[in-house]
Amino acid sequence: MFEGISDFHDWFAERRSRHLYRVSRAPLDQLAGWSVDPDTHTIRHQSGKFFSIDGLEVITNHGPIRTWSQPIIDQNEVGILGILVKKIAGVPHFLMQAKMEPGNINLLQLSPTVQATRSNYTRVHKGKSVPYLDYFRKPGRCRILSDVLQSEQGSWFLHKRNRNMIIETADDVPVLDDFCWLAFDQIADLLLLDNVVNMDSRTVLAGYPFSEPERPGWLAAAKTDTQAISASTALDRTQPRNIVELLSWFTEVKSGYQLSRTRISLRDVKGWICSLDSVTHEMNRYFSVVGVDVEAGSREVGTWSQPMLAPTERGVVAFLVKRVGGGYRVLVQAHTQAGTLDVVEMAPTVQCAPGNYDALDADRRPPFLDYVLSAPREQVLLDVVHSEEGGRFYHAENRYLIITVPDDSDIEAGPDFSWMTVSQLADIAQYGNYVNIEARSLLACLRFLRHAPAVDDSTSQPTGRSRRGRLTGRPQETTVPGPDWDPR
């Protein structure tokens, strides 16, 4: 446990310096343990486990682009992402891990207690066992707070899901070197910092149960934006629609669209160039498939090689929110991606790579994108850069934003959008294949905003922070290029 957040940063820096970490690019045909098929260019591990990279052809009637083909990761196994929780002096603490992933832009980030594919925890790599795994595979007398199969990035994975778990224990848990207990408030602070809390932690934290406030007067005292979000997460479970109506909206949207996927040879993917060194788009857009050699002193295996998807740019993920009474509504989008298990999932208001739409007419740009990118300072509640899954994606980042809509704004949401409360979104996220991983990342930030830093009541704005991640602040740029989560 840490008395203050500065103690955590000292510990984190010490863990970073304790081990050797090195990642270097390598040609795809020279990755140890991997092969590139000479006819199809499919990339596979020699064990037949882990994952492969192949081609996918997509046809849909949803979105500005109706047909395309692309490389995609096929990982036909369910991993475990689990966080162990324990109340210490009555306060929930989360057992987190300083974990190296080769794709992380800063290599070391804060991960769940357990973050392991099935191939890893069954030790296909013949390496060390995964610490604390039995708490999640054999919960026994522990209390299960959350346990759900959740989707991963639908534009880069085909039908990929992981088991997201939060387990509460009363045991005296030994804390290993690369692990630490963090209180709720401390995780809230870290979620405001760029590239500290990894994607796997965020998706699990999104499932942490909501609790009712202890003080009846809390909602009435919510005078600031941050406090209003807190109130909405805890109390506001009714308007504008109830859960049945929201699910009916989602079912109607899902029933009205089609999504057909066909596996094809990687060599047959249109618009992409396959070589023994990499796989790239002919216009250098979207992402590339590259190889890396890795050294990591703190991992189950000290050295390995693997292919990764490397985005060309940074993405933008944003919720528009509006204040109604004492709480907030978020504007949720029904979004189609190439590899999702179903036709659509609930996504943030904006989820795209703006640079990929530069050549399109204004009416084909994602709805609300320009609104988000041009939002004035006083409307920005959250502006932080978070990494995506560092085990499969190389230097993948999204800029996560929460933008308030003024009361007098004329926001017309089409049939693919619906307003809902934060609590309603969290309730729906307790079930798999409804809320996508980008929305769950923002939901984790919303969930923990109730423990945000102190607010200066004279301005109703959070006090300044020395780091870029913040609750309120000027957007870092007026136009942000980013990796698209599908080629549209």
Which percent band covers the strand fraction? 25-35%
Radius of gyration, whole Å: 22 Å
What is the total domain count? 1
Query: Percent range for helical residues?
Result: 10-25%
Query: What is the residue-mean pLDDT, rounded to a whole number?
Result: 85
Cα separation of the termini: 45 Å
Structure characterization notes:
The protein is of the alpha+beta class and 488 residues long. The protein has one domain. It has ten helices and 26 strands. The strands form six sheets. Strands 6, 7, 8, 9, 10, 11 and 12 form a seven-stranded mixed beta sheet that branches. Strands 18, 19, 20, 21, 22, 23 and 24 form a seven-stranded mixed beta sheet that branches. Strands 2, 3, 4, 5 and 13 form a five-stranded antiparallel beta sheet that branches. A hairpin with a 2-residue loop joins strand 6 and strand 7 (91-100). Helix 5 (199-205) crosses helix 10 and helix 6 (225-234) crosses helix 9. The chain is globular. The relative contact order is 0.19.
